[in-house]
UniProtKB/TrEMBL annotation:
Protein name: ABC transporter ATP-binding protein
Superkingdom, taxonomy of origin: Bacteria
InterPro entries, A to Z: AAA+_ATPase, ABC_transporter-like_ATP-bd, ABC_transporter-like_CS, Metal_Ion_Import_ABC, P-loop_NTPase
GO molecular function: ATP binding; ATP hydrolysis activity
Family the entry assigns: Belongs to the ABC transporter superfamily.
Keyword ATP-binding recorded: yes
Domain ABC transporter: 4-236
Xref: CDD domains: ABC_Metallic_Cations
Keywords: ATP-binding, Nucleotide-binding, Transport
Amino acid sequence: METIRVENLSVAYRGKVALQQIDLELSAGKLTGIVGPNGAGKSTLMKGILQLIKTQSGKIFYGEQPLNDHRKKIAYVEQRQDIDLSFPIDVFGVVLFGTYPHLKMFQRPGKKEKSFAAVCLEKVGLSDFADRQISELSGGQLQRVFIARALAQQAEWILLDEPFAGIDATSEKIIIELLKELRDEGKSIVIVHHDLHKVTDYFDEVILLNKGLIASGPVAQTYTTKNMEKTYGSEITQMLRMGGAGFAT
Ligand code: ADP
Ligand code: MG
């Protein structure tokens, strides 16, 4: 298990700063939340870590080595709005696709890959949906299919961008329980998250972001009223107190 380390990551879109000099270490074996207001750069941080976008500066390490040399060990589930659901592929096909990084060039998935894909689908409780087109799934089922794909990839890290956006409370509960189980089995999970009320229930560690890094670390030390004011501005505190956001201190 290796940590992911971000060194001096800056991103700008057409000259407009989205992320400013982020230094950060993501702990392995934890469930980590990336939290911040709309437009804070949360998705940009994930894409920057995976080097899917052009960056102004920054180095990303997996342990002591460049992360790009270990890309297979990191699975990424992008925001649902960015996923092309019109692509005709069934659930089993999506999960099987996860085994591809481990196949040699020109090799096709065989018995071994297929049975492993079936095991991964079973793990997320969707064996009965193997033949469904992905366009026919609920948002929650879709997230679970992508988690199964990450397992088929044998990823050590699973990065999910707003997996709970637009899904019902029951599905959200199924997914967070699944992710906690995977964390307990040794996976490292990172989630871009919006709903402040769940932060203390869901995460071991939290990263507070608003273009710059506000704070990061274990929830009890990091998810404090003071840090949340720095992240969202002072009016948030009163608003959340009424709703009971449950800051650590
Ligand atoms: P978050 O995920 O926290 O809501 P994003 O990382 O998506 O924030 O975006 C950070 C900022 O960068 C926002 O102001 C957004 O409008 C801008 N941005 C994001 N992606 C692009 C893009 N492809 N082109 C131009 N601006 C972008
Ligand atoms: Mg986003």
